[in-house]
Amino acid sequence: MPAAYTCDGCGASLGAVDELHRESTTTGRSWYCGYCRTSVPNAVGERLSHHRDGSPTDRR
Length: 60
Known about the structure:
The protein is an alpha+beta fold. It contains 1 helix and 5 strands; from the N terminus they run βββββα. The chain has one domain (about 5-50). It has one helix at about 40-50, and strands at about 5, 15, 20-25, 30-35, 40. The strands form 2 sheets. The chain has a 3-stranded antiparallel sheet, with helices on one face. It starts with a strand and ends in an 11-residue tail after the last helix. The mean pLDDT is about 85.
């Protein structure tokens, strides 16, 4: 399991892609905290987006 990322804006522990908001742009993707919309580093967003949690709704 990847290490959780602590949001700089609200202090939330972000450990899954469900806790992030993704916006597609012309230059790629931008990731934001799902709670306060503070920008999250792309490396963190991409890492969490590829994490498989094994839940019944995990379709990757």
